[in-house]
């Protein structure tokens, strides 16, 4: 009877925790995010869904380390979140370009990924999201990572482009180019993104299972101790 009561109590605890709403984060740039992988801003030490990133550009670029979940479609947009000419860039964990966008269709000056070119990673992992003002671009040791005006005049400003620039087969080194839009405050709205953090922390469902197993183990240990001869 006592064991049944303990199991029932554990079930009530697990059910209560599982009914809690999932937390989501909004992140505001701390100090000034860097422009390279080594100086990119890591968003958090606790992984959770990330709704947006806000910050300030002053003639530079900001790079953020994020976590994308396999099977979930990534998106990022500054539409409605900035009043200067933005550019958005996504890189993999090693700094190789995934894709970029300058102008969101129907929204002069703002950027959106993925638009008509969705990106859904097959495996979860670390990525880097960059933002800059036009025409300050990411480059590798070989040149521009993404095709860009004026070197690629046939590429439409509202196109989502892959890493097919002169330096597209090499990882990000820095940002360079003419700063034609000095920047200002921005908010990037996101989907399919988590804060980078410690990705080894269990998912909520796993954590609940661990909690239940731990409680059962403690109960059994207590019963075994009580049954020892005095």
From TrEMBL:
Record InterPro entries: Ice-binding_C, Peptidase_C_arc/bac
Signal peptide: 1-24
Any single Pfam family the record assigns to this protein: PPC
Domain of life of the source: Bacteria
Stretches assigned to the Peptidase C-terminal archaeal/bacterial domain: 60-133
UniProt entry keywords in alphabetical sequence: Signal
Keyword Transmembrane carried by entry: no
Residue ranges constituting the Ice-binding protein C-terminal domain according to the UniProt record: 200-220
Keyword Signal: yes
The protein's name: Pre-peptidase C-terminal domain-containing protein
Species per Swiss-Prot/TrEMBL record: Funiculus sociatus GB2-A5
